[in-house]
């Protein structure tokens, strides 16, 4: 895997967010269109790449790969590679990510209530 360049625009922006307030940090960790949905799919069990992809048919393979790498680098998921042929790789939530479960459940409840008022 390529090393991150310390002075790249993305890393400079990320450092500003991480060094900012706690809310900015939290949003940076789970923000974006896909990260929270990936975490939610891993709530109940370990999944392989293809199983996550099947559960999220609108995400491209490239985007799923990128998001899984970011989540792993941020310590929210654990990637386990098994020494088998063909290779077997599973993803699961880390302990720190499981702390988000009640938060995303509250967000789901909020979304259900809010969506009803918008229709």
From TrEMBL:
<dbReference type="Pfam" id="PF01638">
    <property type="entry name" value="HxlR"/>
</dbReference>
<dbReference type="InterPro" id="IPR002577">
    <property type="entry name" value="HTH_HxlR"/>
</dbReference>
<dbReference type="InterPro" id="IPR036388">
    <property type="entry name" value="WH-like_DNA-bd_sf"/>
</dbReference>
<keyword id="KW-0804">Transcription</keyword>
<dbReference type="InterPro" id="IPR036390">
    <property type="entry name" value="WH_DNA-bd_sf"/>
</dbReference>
<dbReference type="GO" id="GO:0003677">
    <property type="term" value="F:DNA binding"/>
</dbReference>
<protein>
    <submittedName>
        <fullName>Transcriptional regulator</fullName>
    </submittedName>
</protein>
<keyword id="KW-0805">Transcription regulation</keyword>
<feature type="domain" description="HTH hxlR-type">
    <location>
        <begin position="16"/>
        <end position="119"/>
    </location>
</feature>
<keyword id="KW-0238">DNA-binding</keyword>
């Amino acid at each position: 895997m390529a090393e991150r360049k310390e002075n790249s625009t993305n890393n400079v922006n990320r450092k500003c967010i991480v060094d900012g307030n706690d809310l900015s940090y939290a949003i940076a960790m789970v923000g974006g269109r896909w990260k929270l949905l990936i975490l939610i799919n891993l709530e109940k069990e370990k999944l392989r790449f293809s199983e996550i992809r099947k559960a999220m048919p609108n995400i491209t393979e490239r985007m799923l790969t990128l998001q899984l790498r970011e989540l792993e680098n941020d310590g929210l998921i654990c990637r386990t590679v098994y020494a088998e042929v063909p290779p077997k790789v599973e993803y699961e939530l880390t302990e720190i990510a499981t702390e988000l479960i009640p938060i995303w459940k509250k967000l789901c409840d909020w979304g259900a209530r809010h969506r009803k008022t918008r229709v």
